[in-house]
């Protein structure tokens, strides 16, 4: 009888206070903190924090910098609220209270909290790769082997007569197969003018040229043993909406019978023909034909425009909600930016530059910049002055913002997610991917 009571008590405690915790917690550096002090508080090492977060230095951190810290518990900092901690970890106040047996929202400095985890989800994960030298290619494939399911080799493009360009590094496709990474060829409408809407019109607007392009795509896939194709035609105009639909339909008709797949990269839309400058894209019609759709939910602020959030969480969510209203969610892949943008805000004529998240962090640390977090867009940013005295504004992703996007993939039960691009080092994103997902092989 006594043993029965103990068992019942244990079961009740488990139900009321489930001790399911994440593999890492997210700490935001406060003024006056050091890596040594933080590592000591969390009973880990400076070296582990440096490696896990891709930090350039062991003795320099700035206020606002986020750190992934291994372990089961978060240590409450002075002035922090349970709402703030829940937001940072993309969970809810109620889940934190339940995991810790709390009745009220009141927290105390140095209080230890278990952060509820989210069940690991098996999904498709992919990334684009721009082949370089053979040694560099093999190194990238080895680095990403356990993180992704597929690779989009970037890129081939047609001329006005639908002849496809060559792509250096085609031999890497065989290496990808050997590492159980499924290769796809990416076909773009790039020209010397960038993504070229007129080139797209020339190759898809004429029946014979369109047929020739489809045959040439098939030849590239067959000769190089690609599993399928990713069509990344950007800037399609409204007058080519029907032509683009026909192109994708006819391409699928050519490839599907031989077991090849068709995926399409699409701009972020929040409704049919909305925004109107993306009205050349028809989610619903394309979704009936393709095997998957890669939503490019980024570049709301781009290098040629004013500084701002690259992938605001609210806009990303709106795009997903429209997409799954038009297309089965089992076909939807969420595109995630793995880069930062740096704008010279004192020189409006100078375009912004893109680089890896790790470089953004190094710049912030080198200039002693405080890192801010925009609670409306859920993205971090900072400012610094260059050697000429011009002020720059940098927007990027960190552990907080990337975790929020990962959770959208789970919340909406999407087919998967993909990133632009391999080689842009982002250790926090890689670690969180390991914790949140199991790549589908």
From TrEMBL:
GO terms for cellular component: endomembrane system. InterPro entries: CFLE_GH18 (IPR041704), Chitinase_II/V-like_cat (IPR011583), Chitinase_insertion_sf (IPR029070), GH (IPR017853), Glyco_hydro18_cat (IPR001223), LysM (IPR018392), LysM_dom_sf (IPR036779). Residues 25-69, 72-115 form the LysM domain. GO terms for molecular function: chitin binding; hydrolase activity, acting on glycosyl bonds; oligosaccharide binding. Keywords: Glycosidase, Hydrolase. Signal peptide: none annotated. It comes from the Bacteria. SUPFAM superfamilies: (Trans)glycosidases, LysM domain. Residues 119-441 form the GH18 domain. GO terms for biological process: carbohydrate metabolic process. PANTHER family: CHITINASE DOMAIN-CONTAINING PROTEIN 1, CHITINASE DOMAIN-CONTAINING PROTEIN 1 FAMILY MEMBER. This is Spore germination protein. It comes from Virgibacillus salinus.
């Amino acid at each position: 009888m006594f043993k029965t009571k103990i068992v019942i008590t244990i079961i009740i405690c488990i139900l009321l206070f489930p001790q399911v915790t994440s593999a890492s917690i997210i700490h935001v550096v406060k003024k006056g903190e050091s890596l040594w002090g933080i590592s000591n508080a969390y009973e880990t090492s400076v070296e582990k924090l440096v490696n896990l977060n891709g930090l350039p230095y062991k003795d320099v951190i700035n206020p606002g910098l986020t750190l992934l810290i291994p372990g089961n518990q978060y240590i409450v900092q002075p002035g922090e609220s349970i709402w703030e901690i829940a937001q940072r970890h993309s969970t809810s106040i109620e889940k934190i209270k339940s995991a810790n047996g709390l009745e009220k929202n009141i927290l105390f400095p140095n209080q230890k909290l278990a952060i509820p985890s989210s069940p690991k989800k098996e999904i498709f994960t992919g990334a684009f790769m721009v082949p370089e030298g053979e040694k560099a290619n093999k190194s990238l494939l080895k680095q990403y082997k356990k993180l992704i399911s597929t690779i989009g080799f970037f890129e081939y493009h047609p001329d006005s007569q639908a002849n496809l360009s060559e792509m250096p590094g085609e031999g890497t496709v065989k290496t990808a197969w050997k590492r159980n990474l499924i290769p796809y060829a990416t076909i773009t409408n790039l020209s010397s003018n960038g993504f070229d809407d007129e080139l797209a019109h020339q190759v898809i607007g004429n029946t014979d040229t369109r047929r020739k392009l489809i045959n040439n795509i098939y030849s590239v896939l067959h000769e190089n043993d690609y599993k399928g194709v990713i069509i990344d035609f950007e800037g399609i105009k409204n007058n080519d909406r029907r032509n683009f639909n026909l192109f994708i339909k006819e391409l699928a008709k050519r490839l599907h019978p031989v077991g090849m797949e068709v995926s399409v990269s699409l701009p972020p839309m929040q409704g049919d023909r909305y925004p109107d400058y993306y009205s050349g894209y028809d989610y619903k019609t394309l979704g009936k034909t393709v095997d998957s759709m890669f939503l490019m939910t980024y570049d709301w602020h781009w290098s040629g425009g004013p500084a701002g959030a690259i992938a605001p969480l609210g806009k990303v969510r709106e795009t997903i909600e429209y997409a799954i209203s038009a297309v089965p969610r089992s076909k939807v892949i969420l595109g995630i930016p793995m880069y930062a943008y740096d704008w010279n805000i004192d020189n409006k004529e100078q375009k912004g530059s893109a680089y890896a998240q790790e470089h953004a962090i190094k710049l912030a640390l080198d200039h002693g910049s405080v890192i801010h977090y925009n609670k409306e867009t859920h993205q971090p940013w900072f400012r610094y002055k260059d050697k000429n005295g011009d002020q720059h504004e940098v927007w990027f992703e960190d552990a907080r913002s990337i975790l929020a996007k990962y959770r959208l993939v789970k919340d909406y039960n999407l087919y998967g997610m993909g990133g632009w691009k391999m080689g842009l080092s982002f250790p926090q994103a890689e670690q969180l991917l390991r914790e949140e997902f199991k790549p589908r092989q």
